[in-house]
Amino acid sequence: MALKKTLAEMEQSVPDSDARKLVAAFLDEDSFSETDKFLSADGEQSSVVTGCGTVCGVSVFVFAQDVSVKGGAVNKAAALKIKRVYELAAKAGCPVVGFYDSKGGDIAEGAGVLADYRDILTASARLSGVVLQIAVITGVCAGCAAMLAATADIVIATEKSELFLTAPFNNADGKLAGAGTAENAAKAGVCQILAKDNDDAVDKAKILMAMLPQNNLSAPYCLIDAAQSDGNVTAALKGMELVSAFADKGTVVELGEKFGSAAVTAIAAVNASTTAFVTTDRAEKLTAADCAKIARFVEFADAFSIPVVTIVNTEGFAGSSAAELAGSVRDCARLAQVYANATTAKINLITGKAYGAAAVAFAGADTTIALENAEISPMNLEALAAFAGETDISAFAAAAVGMADQVVEAENAYEAVYGALLVYSGKRESSPARKHANISL
Length: 441
Description:
- The radius of gyration is 24 Å and the shape is elongated.
- The protein is an alpha/beta fold.
- Strands 10, 11, 12, 13, 14, 15, 16 and 17 form an eight-stranded mixed beta sheet that branches. Strands 1-2-3-4-5-7-9 form a seven-stranded mixed beta sheet, with helices on both faces. A two-stranded parallel ribbon has the order 6-8.
- It has 15 helices and 17 strands.
- It has two domains: 192 residues, 2-enoyl-CoA Hydratase, Chain A, domain 1; 204 residues, Alpha-Beta Complex (2-enoyl-CoA Hydratase, Chain A, domain 1), CATH 3.90.226.10.
- The longest helix has 17 residues.
- Strand 11 and strand 12 form a beta hairpin.
């Protein structure tokens, strides 16, 4: 008769893998408490490591796929472990961070592997907007796993990782098209942050954990010890430079840098309070991709009650037959709906041009501040001259008809924005009774 193994023997039977090293590097030292450590298929080592710990003292649940075990294949046991992570996170109100590196599902289970992925996706979807979810892609993330990762609030991918739905990716000449690369995922808006390697990805995930609320009931307080901004805002600053002028030093994290050519979306701290920044001044007009990028970012910020500061300086939306075919109207409509439905604090700062539909799409802010040289117009200047002749499009004229609440000099913009953030930090707004808005997708 075989004797039962001791706990020490069982511990020794679990080798130290890259997955475990990732978890150890991500969590505070000695804080990891593994869950379902000995849950496996047919008594074999599990293809996923799960548990909880802390990052900067904040509790978090994690799972890390172990590619050294059957290529990280997801089977019934692995699915049960990951699903349990989501269930425990829901009870505790803690974030979920997943490290993805797997060749796919265990095809030996047949159709059962589809049920495994279905259960995980359902568990993740139910927590969307409830607790923070971060996906870190360190290897291959394909098919159903790619769908799961993309549902996270933020996706971080290493440069050498792969993120795709289906393969292969060959052009007509047989050459690799590169569609499954992390770079392509970033350009498509699926991946918000590219990291050089695993260490860089872990560091970036830690920063986000310190910057973002644990759940939808937590205050958006930044745990990074940083000096307050000097408030050196000038009319010449644009994009990330302008965001950095408002933010506490060293706290700006840009999301979706490679997606959308005109807009910048970034998380930053303003006097230790986490704030979402949107700028529309990286190009003259917003594309459909810019609209999609901003809409998803603002939805995320709204879900966790992170105040949104939108810096408006755009001539409007890109217009062409190609843009229309690409669904620009759909994406513009979604952008407008997201802003209108968001109940978090919303502060608009018009630093330059606010023309036509773009000025309306960003409307609905709790307060709108315009720099004294701002131009607010129902259409571009050429069209306006043709239809209306001489028309006053100054910030003061806009303020006279309620399109701006304050007109300030650039040097006073920081105080105006910061003051508005303080005023609306305790904002409470209820939405009409409904399941959800029918947002254009």
